[in-house]
Design goal:
The complex is a heterodimer. Chain A is an alpha/beta fold. Chain A is built from 16 helices and eleven strands. Chain A has a single domain, classed as Amidase signature (AS) enzymes, CATH 3.90.1300.10. A nine-stranded mixed beta sheet of chain B has the order 2-5-6-9-1-10-11-12-13. Chain B has a three-stranded antiparallel beta sheet with strand order 4-3-14, with no helix packed on it. The chains are: A alpha/beta, B alpha+beta. Chains A and B meet through helix 10 and helix 11 of A and strand 8 of B.
């Protein structure tokens, strides 16, 4: 393994700007690493060797010509296959879009390209981002670099696994109910779901529009902040994006000073249903935060108990509508069009063949929940819970600066273990969902390995809307203390892939 | 196959009609409702499209502010309340002409609601005003257009294949829905027609749409039901779709009344269904039944933020509204002192604007009316263009009228001036100069011409001298002919009588 792939984005950035290494060399090292390990990991669905090397060489030329380039120019990245990339397949992990090549770039992709960030390829995911294990990908599961028998989280398991396997130092994920944070937790990496509206969703294939948010993933808090700064900011193409300055996330990640901060532990997100090792590492991390000068208080958010139920009404409702466009008429898969069938039959056969079971399950659920006569009882009630969740957060943030909880109730489970039990799968997101319902920012960062299985545990940090910088400040402080305690980043303790 | 109907008079003896009119207006915005694609009509299929209006995965809508402004202005012109806060909603159903398989529309939170429009109709007791209450006017996007190839009917059933053009998909629409229109009785068809006509005038006057019914930029759906007496509950309604001319609106209401009545009198139930209007045969035929009513699964559109038009903005738009066409007409009729019939002639011929401009340019009302309804309408008709397109400006008419009043031109010469302008020979004075058109005002040549005319028909001088002054006409005519129309006929008559020593 080239030493280059062990380096963080900020380290690579320093080497690149000092001219000690070229972007092409960095890119090639990562492409080699992918060739070496991705057969076992399967983090990538498409690898764009040619495009990546070309982008890298453009960055090198610019640097050579003395042009100003972004601080992450030449640093490679794995892009979740849910973001539209012009000329590059965008499958969303589904047979439905297996051969679809978008004619346009997502706003985030445009910003990455403008920053000179090198897109290595598209990472694997649960089909249409529905799942917590990446097992629902139509193109086969991704394996957790910590233990190839285990899941890398989901839906963005490809993005988390490519970081943990040193295939890329940066990745982009999307988070509707935890799809950035839970994969980060179970792979020992960092992931942030920004404030709703903080990053443009234009070009991200929609799962649930009111919950979806694109976010940065990396191996360190600082790298995550650097990437956050590149992708965030107002975009007129997304009417839900916020027209306000991006929170100073990089400065916060460099600061890491929590003296005098008030940190709330959410009573409802912990305890029963949470693995003992997860609870143990969480409790230890709380002690560290206290030792760093923070005041720890317990807060109660009673409506969080209903968040999962509300989420599984709102999400399927929106997704049943968002996924209606996949009908074989304009793009993607078309089945049964042999001249003997009506348009309705072709649409129906296409959808039956193109969607996996989990997708169909959620479309059916959502179609039912929005139906006349059921709307008030399901969608309407769920929206009320959503309001209550937001009120609980508002009340909590009147007392504390940030909230914390374990990111996921368990460490990475075995591939196949929960595949036939949707409820067990859904419960993985029990701690991450409230943040999406309220549109708030949340981070997951590694806080150690669970003693019983030696697998990574993540802590979730939650902040008020547009206070994403607080996540980075607290995360940086905790990361610094933990790395000092461990003597090295946690991924160094992972057995080589 | 047409259904049984009964005579209109029989319907009225036994039933009371209730109507509901839904009008879709395509706004004349430059770009679509949620993307920057052009709204221009008639482009090559699928050339005015982008990821947003094609509903490609990942694309998101961005609201056209002019679309919202137009909706508010329409609402204000229809005396509606303007919502302080409203949202778009998704109307979910599968159809190949709908790129996203949901239409971005408004559901229970329309931007405009609770308005009315007063329309005038001719009744047995003279002209009367009828108030049509408006339930709502809301914003939505148009669908694409399917063309079904092969098969006899042009409909999807029986077609070999279908083509879809998404150029129209995403063009802003305003749907204007009336409350049930009750109490129109036998005038229901006229009220329906008058309402759509008045609505069309208002929309045109606002400049928000080209309101061309034949091109589909204004489309009308007619809902109709009958009940025995006005005290009864509403009957079962039919929805006749895409009735696309004013005359058809009237005919469709009348036809549906006679069809419903025939069913009810035969002891059958009216089926709640969509019906297609056939312009050529004047009947409706059954479309899809609404008994398995579609469930559109409306929910608030999460990709767009709520719209909260500030009261300041609404008031600014209200203050800048053009004068209501009906109010304007009443004002002009009074100002110009015209009879109802004369006014109606101008309105029907769509000459009101031109006459108003000509009057403003200094032409008398009578002269302006005479030119526009007479000579200019005749020429426009001949050339198959609108009068406004002839290129005769109000300033030109004013100049002609000025020359007539000073005696430099007469009617006949004025027509020649117009002919010259229409032939592209220049403006009024240019044509007069190049054609050498001028009233002969020198009495010498006129007297010579009079003497010639009397010499040609000696008996006429005696007739006139004996007091039969009407005989002078033939002499004046001969003089006019001899001078190729360039004489002032009144002066010729004067000179003739003087010459013969006769007084009026």
């Amino acid at each position: 393994m080239s030493e280059l792939v062990r380096k963080d984005a900020s380290e690579l950035s320093a080497l690149l700007s000092a001219g000690e290494v070229s972007a092409v060399e960095v890119t090639q090292a990562h492409l080699d690493r992918i060739t070496q390990v991705d057969g076992a990991i399967h983090a990538f669905l498409h690898i764009d060797t040619e495009g990546a090397l070309q982008a890298a060489s453009v960055v090198d030329s610019k640097r050579a010509a003395g042009e100003t380039v972004g601080s992450l120019a030449g640093v490679p990245l794995g892009l979740k296959d849910i973001l539209a990339t012009k000329g590059l397949p965008t499958t969303v992990g589904s047979k439905m879009l297996e051969n679809w090549i978008p004619p346009y770039d997502a706003t985030v992709v445009t910003r990455l390209r403008e920053a000179g960030i090198v897109i290595l390829g598209k990472t694997n995911m649960d089909e249409f981002a529905m799942g917590s294990s990446t097992e629902h990908s139509a193109f086969g599961p991704t394996h957790n670099p910590w233990d190839l028998e285990r899941i890398p989280g989901g839906s963005g398991g490809g993005s988390s696994a490519c970081l943990a396997a040193f295939e890329a130092p940066l990745a982009i994920g999307t988070d509707t109910g935890g799809s950035i944070r839970q994969p980060a937790a179970v792979t020992g990496t960092v992931g942030v779901k920004p404030t709703y509206g903080g990053v443009s969703r234009y070009g991200a294939v929609a799962l649930a529009s009111s919950l979806d948010q694109i976010g940065p993933c990396a191996r360190t808090v600082l790298d995550t902040a650097l990437l956050h700064e590149v992708i965030a900011g107002f975009d007129p193409m997304d009417q839900t994006s916020i027209n306000a300055p991006v929170p100073a996330v990089v400065a916060a990640a460099k600061r890491g000073d929590i003296k005098g901060m008030k940190i709330g532990v959410v009573r409802e997100l912990g305890g029963e249903g949470y693995q003992a090792g997860v609870r143990q590492r969480f409790d230890e991390a709380v002690v560290i935060l206290e030792s760093l000068g923070a005041e720890i208080v317990e807060v109660s958010c009673p409506s969080f108990d209903y968040a999962l139920a509300a989420y599984y009404l709102i999400l399927p409702s929106e997704c049943s509508s968002n996924l209606a466009k996949f009908d074989g008429i304009r793009f993607g898969l078309r089945v049964g069009d042999d001249g003997s069938r009506s348009v309705e039959q072709v649409m129906s056969q296409t959808r039956a063949a193109g969607f996996g079971d989990e997708v169909i399950r959620r479309i059916m659920l959502g179609t039912y929940a929005l139906s006349a006569g059921y709307y008030d009882a399901y969608y309407g009630q769920a929206q009320k819970i959503r309001t209550l969740v937001a009120q609980d957060f508002a009340k909590a943030f009147s007392q504390v600066d940030v909230l914390i909880s374990p990111t996921a109730p368990t460490t990475a489970f075995k591939i196949g273990e929960k595949l036939d039990d949707p409820m067990a799968m859904y419960l993985n997101d029990i701690a991450t969902i409230p943040v999406n319902l309220a549109g708030l920012p949340g981070m997951s960062l590694p806080i150690g390995l669970a003693p019983e299985d030696n697998l990574p545990v993540g802590m979730q940090i939650m902040a008020p809307a547009m206070a994403d910088d607080r996540l980075y400040n607290v995360g940086a402080a905790l990361e610094r203390a933990l790395v000092a305690q461990w003597g090295a980043p946690i991924l160094n303790s992972m057995a080589g892939v | 196959m047409s259904e049984a109907v009964i005579s209109y008079d029989e319907v009225l003896e036994q039933f009371d009609p209730v109507m509901g009119l839904e009008v879709h207006v395509e706004l004349g915005t430059r770009t679509k409702m949620f993307c920057g694609c052009s709204t221009e009509f008639g482009a090559e299929p699928n050339t005015h499209v982008c990821p947003v209006c094609l509903g490609l995965p990942g694309a998101l809508p961005a609201l056209n502010k002019i679309g919202v402004e137009s909706a508010i202005r329409i609402g204000l012109a229809l005396n509606c309340k303007i919502a302080e806060w409203c949202r778009f909603a998704r109307k979910n159903y599968f159809y190949p002409d709908m790129p996203k398989n949901f239409q971005t529309s408004q559901y229970d939170e329309p931007i405009c609601y609770d308005g009315y429009l007063d329309v005038d109709i001719d009744t047995d007791e003279g002209r009367k005003t009828f108030r049509v209450n408006i339930e709502r006017a809301h914003m939505e996007e148009d669908t694409g257009k399917n063309t079904h190839m092969g098969g006899a009917t042009g409909r999807i059933h029986g077609a070999d294949y279908s083509l879809v053009d998404y150029n129209r998909a995403g063009i802003p629409l305003i749907e204007i829905v009336t409350k049930p229109i009750e109490g129109a009785g036998k005038y229901a068809p006229e009220v329906a027609k008058a309402y759509v006509a008045a609505l069309r005038d208002i929309l045109r006057n606002l400049g928000v749409s080209d309101v061309k019914m034949e091109q589909g930029s204004l489309r009308c759906d007619v809902n109709l039901s009958l009940r025995r007496t006005p005290q009864d509950e509403l009957g079962i309604r039919s929805e006749t779709k895409n009735v696309n001319s004013l005359r058809s609106v009237e005919r469709a209401v009348r036809y549906e009344m006679t069809r419903h009545a025939a069913r009810l009198l035969a002891g059958e139930r009216v089926i709640q269904e969509t019906r297609h209007w056939h312009e050529d045969t004047g009947v409706t035929t059954s479309g899809r039944s609404k008994s398995d009513a579609e469930d559109y699964r409306y929910f608030p559109e999460p990709d767009l933020v709520p719209i909260a038009p500030s009261r300041e903005w609404v008031e600014q738009l209200r203050a800048a509204l053009p004068e209501n066409p009906a109010v304007r007409r009443a004002r002009m009729q009074e100002l110009w002192n015209l009879s109802d019939i004369d006014m109606q002639t101008l309105i029907n011929a769509e000459l009101l604007d031109l006459v108003e401009e000509a009057v403003a340019a200094g032409v008398s009302v009578d002269a302006a009316r005479k030119w526009y309804t007479g000579e200019l309408s005749r020429v426009a008709n001949e050339r198959e263009v609108d009068v406004a397109e002839l290129g005769i400006t109000p300033a030109m008419l004013a100049r002609i009228e000025e020359l007539i009043s000073t005696g430099a031109l007469n009617d006949k010469l004025a027509r020649q001036v117009l002919e010259g302008i229409l032939a592209g020979e220049g403006d009024v004075d240019g044509v007069i100069a190049s054609r050498g058109l001028a009233v002969v005002s020198d009495d010498g040549p006129l007297l010579e011409a009079i003497k010639d005319a009397l010499a040609a028909d000696p008996s006429v001088a005696e007739t006139i001298a004996s007091g039969k002054l009407q005989a002078a006409g033939s002499v004046v005519g001969a003089v006019m002919k001899a001078t190729r129309g360039q004489a002032d006929a009144a002066r010729v008559r004067e000179l003739l009588l003087e010459h013969l020593g006769v007084s009026e």
